[in-house]
Amino acid sequence: MPAAASSKLAPKSATSEPKKFGSAPPAKSASRSQPLAPPPSRIETPVPLPPSAVAVPSAPRTPETPAATIITAKINVGFGNALYLRGEGPSLSWNSGLLLKNVESDIWTISILGAKHPVVFKLLLNDSAWSTGEDYVAKPGSNTTVTPKF
Q1: What is the pLDDT of residues 22-47, one digit of tens each?
Q2: Which of 15, 100, 103, 130 is the most exposed place for a label (fewest CB within 10 A)?
Q3: DSSP code per residue over 44-102
Q4: Quick check: 141 and 115 in contact, CB under 8 A?
């Protein structure tokens, strides 16, 4: 039978020294081009500013939204009928009306948002029959109550 091949490891070179446990790594060059921090005598301490010189950031200004203009009509228009508003102001037109909300048998209300100028309006029964008299005017952000006649 042929002889089995030997699977022995090659011996380490004789020039390398065995490492000892706990020994320090080889020394690196100790010279650095810049120190890590300036010496304590060179550290400058900042001079605090007086409170009047410190700028306090103000909150960003947002455009104020005008308060809602609330228009209330006191009138009983009868069962099955509705009250509409036409005029000049945000969301208003003289050509088509906005439906008022019936909150009681004879109380109708609507809230107009974003009015910056007076709201000029008229009330219509079923968005077809105009109330008599002059146009009504409501100041922006006001609660205006009217009693229309048809």
Answers
A1: 556 656 555 556 656 656 666 666 77
A2: 15
A3: PPPPPPPGGGSPPPPPPP-PPPPPPEEEEEE----TT--EEEEEESTT--SSS-EEPEE
A4: yes
In this structure, which amino acid lies at residue 67? A
Terminal Cα distance for the chain, rounded: 129
Rounded to two decimals, the pTM is 0.58
CA–CA distances in Å: residue 47 to residues 40, 50, 97, 118: 17, 10, 68, 56
Q: How far is CA 112 from CA 11, 17, 64, 90, 109, in A?
A: 97, 93, 16, 7, 10
What's the pLDDT tens digit per position in 78-122?
999 999 999 999 999 999 999 999 999 999 999 999 999 999 999
Q: Domains of the chain (ranges plus CATH)?
A: 69-146 (2.60.40.10)
